[in-house]
Design brief:
Layout (H helix, E strand, L loop, with lengths): L3 E4 L3 H9 L3 E8 L2 E6 L24 E10 L2 E6 L8 E6 L1 H14 L6 H8 L1 E6 L10 H4 L11 E5 L3 E6 L2 H6 L6 E2 L2 H18 L8 H7 L6 H7 L5 H5 L6 E7 L5 E8 L20 H20 L9 H4 L7 H10 L1
Parallel strand pairs: 2-6, 6-7, 7-8
Antiparallel strand pairs: 1-9, 1-10, 2-3, 4-5, 4-12, 8-9, 11-12
Helix pairs in contact: 7-10, 8-10
Length: 340
């Protein structure tokens, strides 16, 4: 499979070309922030630093109807509400850390208990990954081995090399896209620019701490006094849960009309920081203490996920720090645990 380049002036034309076959989703600007949404060629913004919500929202929506029911003449009729797309989707401009976030969600929703809604959308989406132009002040993908570049999880990998984009195929689907006439074969000079860009990002990241062995050290410090100050600072708003590319907790809500003859079941995002998250029948709350809820998220990212899937489920995107009103920094926690 050959690497190709595309001049930046032809990017909008590429999007319109892709829209002939796919529903195209990519980063665009909305007021003062960037979001992932359906786009036209003139809307895409590949210079975005990060988005508030990760692209997981496309596969694991904030609210997703599962099925509806109707009671009539003593019988109950069920209707499956799974979305069936008329076109496959194509996600362009997703950063490596968010690709790896989806890789982790694949393990959560595709394991022993499969989520057909999530899997349907994942299996019908083409992924074009974009190497970040610049790391944000909160990024630490190098620590979590999720960037600045990756070797899997995409159909195409893009790198900004100045007046053009460098494209590397990762699948047959990606190679087919590169057959479009406006793509040109990459030269040796293009490849040097691509390698230089990745090397530049690696040098800019160079975080001062490592993640190796953090799961073992966390087990040793479960009852440590380290957690008290963070529990006092945390306002338990759930922002870190909702902006995280790998948080996957949800609740099931049943909605009915006043007579109970019609209704639907909805899957909705939930957060382990919420007081009632672990509330069960009889009024028992096995995570009623603030400290236990604050710890849970850290342990799930850096300890429990390693036990379940053999990988950390923090991808180093930095969103939890950037959007935390209490400015709790997970990097600070990792560094303190590593130092002992």
């Amino acid at each position: 499979m050959k690497d190709k380049i595309l001049e930046k002036k032809n990017l909008a034309r590429l999007i319109e070309h892709l829209r002939e076959k796919y529903e195209v989703v990519g980063p665009k600007k909305k007021e003062d922030v960037f979001i992932f949404d359906y786009i036209h060629g003139d809307e895409i913004r590949l210079d975005y630093p990060t988005t508030i919500l990760p692209p997981k929202k496309l596969f694991f929506p904030q609210r997703e109807p599962l099925y509806s029911y109707e009671k009539k003449n003593g019988e109950v009729a069920l209707k499956d509400l799974m979305k069936k797309w008329t076109k496959k989707h194509l996600l362009i401009g997703i950063h490596p850390c968010d690709v790896m976030g989806l890789f982790i969600l694949d393990k959560e929703f595709g394991g022993d208990f499969k989520d057909p809604y999530y899997l349907y959308q994942r299996q019908n989406t083409v992924m074009i990954c974009l190497i970040c132009k610049e790391p944000t002040e909160h990024c630490f993908c190098d620590v979590m081995n999720t960037g600045p570049t990756i070797e899997e999880g995409y159909d195409l990998l893009m790198v900004d090399i100045g007046d053009r984009y460098y494209f590397q195929p990762g699948s047959e689907v990606g190679q087919e896209i590169l057959e479009w006439e406006l793509f040109k074969n990459a030269t040796d000079e293009d490849k040097r620019k691509r390698d230089a860009k990745v090397g530049e990002l690696e040098n800019k990241l160079c975080s001062r701490f490592k993640s190796e062995g953090i799961d073992k050290k966390l087990r040793e410090r479960f009852n440590d006094e380290l957690w008290g100050p963070y529990a006092e600072k945390c306002v338990l708003c759930g922002a870190c849960n909702f902006v995280c590319p790998t948080c996957h907790c949800f609740t099931i809500e049943d909605e009915t009309n006043l007579t109970g003859t019609e209704g639907r079941r909805v899957k909705a995002w939930d957060a382990c920081h919420f007081k009632n998250f672990a509330l069960i029948a009889g009024g028992l709350n096995f995570r009623g203490q603030r400290t236990s809820r604050v710890k849970l998220r850290i342990y799930d990212k850096l300890c429990y996920s390693m036990e379940r899937h053999g990988v950390y489920s923090c991808v180093g995107c930095g969103r939890c720090t950037e959007f935390c009103p209490a400015r709790i920094d997970i990097r600070e926690i990792i560094e303190k645990v590593q130092k002992g």
